[in-house]
Design a protein that fits this description.
about 240 residues; alpha/beta; about 25% strand; globular
Length: about 240
């Protein structure tokens, strides 16, 4: 479809009397892996909450899968994994996933699918509270994958994961995108940026730049994306002065 999965126009969010997002605007194409990158505190999580429809916004418009963000009929079409796992610690992985599957109206086979997709087979009978940080993050991701959502909004899904698991997860993300799922993935780790089809670089609540990794490197003449990001920041600050 030509219609973007996400369309954000003039988005402004204020919290505590301060602008967290300052007139953000962009689109995200369907079936793509888009990275949302920037330092801690730049507004990534606030932007994701705005897209999911759980953030009060000051101004602007957010359209998701052709509907206004937060529309009731989007609830089963979006999978959302927060940075802090929202999964019951006193249940086993399987029990927790079966609970969320029942809420969504999916069957046991869907639970088996997401356990396999996220590599949780050996931990399926383990209490969530006893999982390592990386395993808990995988369980949180598995909840978001239930019901085969059209859009996945993942807030730092690889935090606490070892390099091997991170590689497995990124392979999964691209497999999902190839099947038509749209993914918006936040991170403050620049080496993950190269794995994305497109990048949104946030800095102090504004959209600093966007484009494919190769385009941003070429634009700044940088050898890697971390240097590209730093050069973009310095260029903006130089203009401001």
């Amino acid at each position: 479809m030509d219609e973007p999965a996400i369309e954000v126009t003039g988005l402004r969010v204020r919290r505590g009397g301060h602008d967290v997002l300052r007139g953000i605007g962009f689109t995200v194409g369907r079936g793509t892996v888009t990275g949302l990158l920037g330092p801690n505190g730049c507004g990534k999580s606030t932007l994701m909450r705005s897209i999911v429809g759980v953030q009060v916004v000051e101004a602007g418009r957010v359209t998701v899968l052709g509907r206004a963000a937060g529309s009731p009929d989007l609830r089963r079409r979006i999978g959302y994994a927060t940075q802090d796992p929202a999964i019951y610690a006193d249940l086993t992985v399987t029990e927790a996933l079966r609970y969320f599957a029942a809420v969504l109206g999916t069957g046991p086979s869907d639970v088996d699918r997401v356990i396999a997709q996220t590599g949780l087979g050996t931990s399926a009978r383990t209490l969530v509270g006893r999982l390592s940080g990386g395993q808990r993050g995988r369980a949180n991701l598995a909840v978001a994958l239930l019901g085969t959502p059209e859009l996945l909004v993942l807030d730092e899904p690889t935090v606490g994961s070892d390099p091997e698991l991170r590689d497995e997860l990124w392979t999964l993300f691209h497999t999902l995108a190839a099947a038509g799922t749209t993914l918006l993935i936040s991170s403050h780790v620049m080496d993950e940026a190269a794995r994305c089809d497109d990048l949104l670089l946030l800095h102090r609540g504004t959209l600093l730049a966007r484009g494919a990794p190769a385009q941003l490197r070429a634009r700044t003449g940088a050898a890697d994306l971390e240097q590209a990001f730093l050069r973009l920041i310095k260029g903006r600050e130089g203009v401001a002065r």
